[in-house]
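Box 4.2: Ligand-aware structure prediction
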Amino acid sequence: MAVNRALFDDVMVPNYAPSSVIPVKGEGSRVWDQENNEFIDFAGGIAVNCLGHCHPALVNALKEQADKLWHLSNVWTNEPALRLADKLVSSTFADKVYFANSGAESNEAALKLARRFALDKFGAEKSKIIAFNKGFHGRTFFTVTVGGQAAYSDGFGPKPGDIVHCDYNDLESFAALIDDNTCAVMLEPLQGEGGIISPTPEFIQGVRELCDKHNALLIFDEVQTGVGRTGTLYAYQGLGVTPDILTTAKALGGGFPIGAMITTTEIAKHLVIGTHGSTYGGNPLACAVAEAAFDTVNQTDVLEGVTAKEALFREGLEAINAKYDVFSEVRGKGLLLGAVLNEKYKGRARDFLNASSANGLMALVAGADVVRFTPSLVIPNEDIAEGLARFEKAVAAVVNG
Ligand SMILES: Cc1ncc(COP(=O)(O)O)c(C=O)c1O
């Protein structure tokens, strides 16, 4: 049997359209395909591989745990889960942790908790959830409905109700929507999929104040921004605005599937025995790897390195732009960056992605107008330079048609 891209079309459900390249090996920020072609990885598995590929600390943690204990279910707890939860609690505003397996599941837990909290404390009327246009929170039916692109939740029958949206960074519209029947507000403290959009300080502070005024829980979806991505352990710590519930996944496991919802004791106590759960949530293998990832990222030199590497990316992208005039701006924070295509190249992000791949670079898009970069947080500076050189070739190829 030939294991190639054609096999994908034969045996896989057609909800994805992967590249024709099939990677088989990775080390740090370099990846090799079946033909041994080498790629620099500026995508990081979509902000997941925070320590690159096969980081020794993660490989060791996985191997060690693999020889000890793989799975128990929630009928028993386990040491890696307890250690990781303790670290999450000590490094954030939170007192309590719920483990899930993905970002969507972490958000699902957050939303259910918020609804239950409001029901218990204020009654059934308080069920409204406010979220933001272009926001992305996952693909379960609840989370995709809370997400800000109706196209993703249309066509699956009746949607979960009492969910409304307004524009990100539009405090006036938000103020007009929130009321005493609002139970929760969910947002990304830097919109990722929606195009790499940072919140303004007035917006994020205003949302916090209005949530407090109306007894609504503020949920930060840090699935993409969490675990060092923006240069602080969590983005909220750089914004100076603390949520009531925070979700984290992607980089939490450095490539091993895990997610978590973290919150305060006061809120957590409403998720009583039997109200929610997951067979794999808190799995020892996942938690052992995540503990190693968390320990490695949560170091001053790594977090400061993110900001230093951001500067290298910005300099390099600006130099490319000075030559080719393709971007209107580079936005984002830390190593969650978006090069926004100018009027001339609007809608062509995918062309830049394909040209990057042809030149040995893995990059991403965030919508049709933004080329997104979410590399390893410890990507060597030489790999940044080499990746940018390859990106310049890709830009030249698009510009020269
Ligand atoms: C902000 C945000 N929330 C949630 C998700 C969904 O995470 P998952 O795909 O692990 O369910 C994503 C994935 O891209 C995301 O970027």
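In the box above, the bound molecule is pyridoxal-5'-phosphate. The first helix runs from residue 5 to 11.
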